[in-house]
Amino acid sequence: MAVTRECGGSGRQRTFSHFNTERVHQQRAGLASWEAFSARWRAHQGLPLLSPLHVQYLTPQDFCNGLGHQLPPAEQRRWFRHYICLALGVPSPLVGSVQRAAVPVWEQAELWEEGTRFP
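Above: the chain sequence. Below: its structure as tokens.
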């Protein structure tokens, strides 16, 4: 016995069908997917996020050192809090040279020359 679906479907099905056919939605979803992938990859590599807003795709446990090893839990929470503060535009509890981690990667040429990794 074949199962047939009604053309109209439920409200949820209609909503997702609309999203799947809407070009702008697909573009935004693609960009958000890339930002989430990039944020997780960079956090796992100990690299600074490209934007403090990308912290929305992470959990404190995602922050690792430059070798990909997990940081101690207190340090993970500290880095997570740091990016949350930057995303909200409030002063971060991390100060000094560590603040450079929030600088966009294209403005960090001197950091790459030094071989510095964050966190």
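The chain has one domain: 16-114.
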